[in-house]
Design a protein that fits this description.
mainly alpha, about 90 residues, about 80% helix, elongated, single chain, Methane Monooxygenase Hydroxylase, Chain G, domain 1, 3 helices
């Protein structure tokens, strides 16, 4: 089982909160009937923020696996690879 370092998650949580606000902005833009370009640009910003948060989570999990005195198990390695590929 891959656990996350809570200290590493503070910036991730901040990024996700920012993305949550941006997503609210996308919804408002659509509700206001704003230009397609504005909506898509804001939506792209949300996607980038979510991607960065996801990669930061996988990176933290990998660091935790590597810190283990026993090294990384085959199961954890497979899990981390699968998580990484899920984001790509």
């Amino acid at each position: 089982m891959v656990t996350l370092n809570p200290d590493d998650m503070t910036p991730v949580i901040n990024r996700l909160r920012r993305a949550q606000g941006q997503l609210g902005g996308v919804i408002r833009l659509i509700e206001e009937g704003r230009d397609c370009r504005d909506v898509v640009n804001q939506l792209a910003a949300v996607n980038r923020a979510l991607d960065k948060a996801g990669f930061a989570i996988v990176s933290s999990g990998m660091r935790e696996c590597l810190k283990s005195p026993d090294g990384i198990s085959q199961e954890d390695q497979a899990t981390m690879e699968k998580l990484f590929l899920t984001l790509s």
